[in-house]
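In practice, a research group might receive sequence data for several interacting partners and want a quick structural hypothesis before committing to experiments. The following worked case mirrors that situation: the sequences arrive first, and a predicted assembly follows.
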Amino acid sequence: MDFWSNPVKFLDDWLTGVFSGWGMAADAARVLTAFVGILVLITLVMVLDIFLVWLERKIVSRFQDRIGPNRVGPFGLIQPFADIIKLIIKENIYPVGVDKAVFNLAPVLMMMSVLLLWAVLPLTSFLGLDLNVGVLYVIGVGALGTVAIIMAGWSSNNKYALLGSFRQVAVMISYEIPMVAALLIPTIFAGSMGINSIVAAQDTWYIVLAPLAFLLFLVSATAELGRAPFDLTEAESELIAGHHIEYSGMKFGLFYASELLHAFTFGGFIAAFFFGGWRGPWVEAYPALGLFYFIVKATIAYWLFGWIKYTFPRIRIDKMLDLNWKFLVPFAFVLVPFLALMHALLRETSFYALGMFLANIALGWATIEILRRRAHGERAKVEGAVEMHG
Amino acid sequence: MTTPASTPTLRPAQGDASDLAARFPGVVSPDTRPGFSGFTIPADKLVEVATIIRDELGYDLLSSVTGVDYLPENKMEVVYHAYKTTGGPALVFKVQVPRDNPVVASMTPIWKGAEFQEREAWDLLGIKFTGHPDLRRILMWEGFEGHPLRKDWKEAFYEEDAKPFKSRWPDGKHVLAEARNPFSDNLRFPSGFDPEKMTFADPEEALYRSLKKYTFEDADGIQADHIIVNLGPQHPSTHGVFRSAVILDGETVVSLKPVMGYLHRNHDKIGERNTFLQIIPYTDRLDYFCSMTNNHGYVLAVEKLMGIQVAERAEYIRVIMDEITRIQNHLIFFGMLLNDLGAMYTPALYAFEERELILDIFEAAAGSRMMCNYYRFGGVVRDVPAEALQKLRDLVFDRLPGKIDEMERLLTENDVLVSRLKGVGYLSAEDAINTSMTGPMLRASGVPYDIRRADPYSIYDRFDFKVACRPDGDLYARYMVRVDEVRESIKILQQALKQIPEGPTMSVKPQYQVRVPAGEAYGRIESPKGELGYYVISNGKPNPWRYHIRASSFINLTALEMMCKGEKIADFVAILGAIDIVLGELDR
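A structural hypothesis for the assembly, expressed as tokens:
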């Protein structure tokens, strides 16, 4: 078998063969190989995470008209390692009244919730589990991170942390609805919940077929990630650090690292759902090339999250819930049947992609027009009232 | 620039200060001490007369309340400075009470703005104010013994009443005060207080009691309390070591009390120990963003006492420095407000870029970027170098107007910003005047009161500028007032830079020991944060007898609770940010 067409399968077979050669039962060898694979993947992901710290700091410094880390190593590349050493050698602090077991478990669970997502992330055509409930899995694992935040907030014995986790609950309950709706659209288009199948089905990128679904997913993913302008759980200027206020050292480091990795992972999902994932030129001939395309697309999406984060003030909690329940949820409920209908009508025609794109534009225009009319009406009402009183 | 068509809050000035003595014959008498002015009111008639002063004479803005300890006469005096929001000079009235039992009626029912200042007078001078709703210590800690501004109170390491200390050079050699005065020897504690055991009663109890608590029973009969959150003293958005005890109902602020004094160093007492000239560098440390304007207020007061004119060129330099101080202060304000709103540091760093250029001018003129120590009695310490002036011209004529436009394009119409600022933290014009708000806070509530216009000092009457004013009284108005003010400051700067004459920068011979005749003076300026007033009493000696600062950061907090009630905790941060406090000035 050719190594380059599916190196993972090749290595998998080879390693299973080696283990079997040592006289191991076939099933046991398969399990052991899987564990080795997971270990390798997690290690690589964590290394990626370390460079994300560097990338994040470089991105923010560019937005803020500064240079960013540039002292340790070329372009400051070694800076994150210095940070990690500092975090590791820090004292392990337990504030008074902390529920130790929950307190310690929270950062681990937080990191885990992100790493679990990588099981279904379609890095290439051959890497990433094509789970037949992949989309559901993403939503479910996403909620796990929320549990970690609630655990951290509750166990810290700190009012800021508690307020932060209260907010997280409100956000989670609200923003999962538009997110599920947004993910339903690629599911409908591809006819599968398996994420790799969704990527494989994207002969035309779904950003063309459903740009509105992309925007919906972007907004709800930003909220789910807890990044600005929806960083209410952390809310540096209000709640100081929110749920992870009492964490120091590497426990804080885990929260920080999982936040960045979470953003990158969602960047990966944006790439997979809307930008054709690993698809690109010559990928049929050299499937390993897909990894490169995927990482590039995910990084661009990650940069997009950074762009949003470093240019927006924070939205207030009530306004944020307003935005969700009064706009995103109704909008999602219109969008899903509308796009499903258009998909069914136009699928067999020759102008499928163009038609879908125009349908999106039309719906977007109608939405903006309705909102504008409503806002003008409201405004006239308020200003009229003012004039009457004045 | 919008000016409200009608300002219903402005009471027409129906009377004049000179009427006061005529109206209360035998009760109110003019202060006849040489160098002093104003009226003396007997303590028992204070509330009655003050009500008349506010309601009938039209002095609706109580600017400054402070106490003076006249140890030789065994008297305590409380001095009030009231102004009309329509402009004009102050009405000064005073109450004298015996020193061993100083009790004065509180002004808080008439002017709510007296609340903090009376607490300060109680804290530092031990004057009791009857009828004050919450008379606790404000700057010193709760277990503190004594009232430090009293003339017979002596600090740890006390040596002499006034500098320069002769005793430091007994043999022509320097001796450290600490070496001669061990720490424990002259430190006093409250009776029964053991510093090793901290046995005194919970000092926070009075604070928490002053918060309005709401205990209620829910449907199942379970007793429920709102939670108290202490925002600060370590908090990223309190601009230093400021603290607010807040009662929250979910996310909503129910009750709030500001707690301050963590940076207190008794600036007033330090001033009284120093000579007149030595005080100038200390004023830099008040509002450390605006050392130029701090200098200005102080030298204004002392120049009034000395009765000297300021050199013409120096007047222009002062106006120029004041206005670029205002611009850089407001630039920081925009950045920090956006920080408080959660746009972490991006706008702040863009604002700092312009500010650095302004600090370059300060550095060229004064030698320091922040602690300028630049003004002297009669002028400024040295001329501005020609290159710095040229740099400033480039900045003011070419660069800054465009940069302000750019900043406005980025921020003013931003949806998130507007949704966070519009309609939040409302303060009506009546409340703003009553709580002694000054500066942009007052003007954002629709009161066009700017000392540069209302009671011109220096040469501000020569320039053409508008008073920035917005009628809405919300956070957005406070933001917009500052934007307008930056534009007006640029206008003033452009005129000043065109008109600035050549000539000396000092009208008198510079000297280390200035002779200040006995008397009192209140010098006040429109600092970027509000009215900055210096109340100085001289008794002819090299040191002031009383040196008091009316800090706008401090007094503008009076309305904090009023503005925050019913708003979200996120808004509290923004409201506090929009007051624009600096802890150096707040805690003094």
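Before designing any experiment, note the following. Chain B has three domains: 17-130, 205-259, 267-577. The longest helix of chain B spans residues 312-340.
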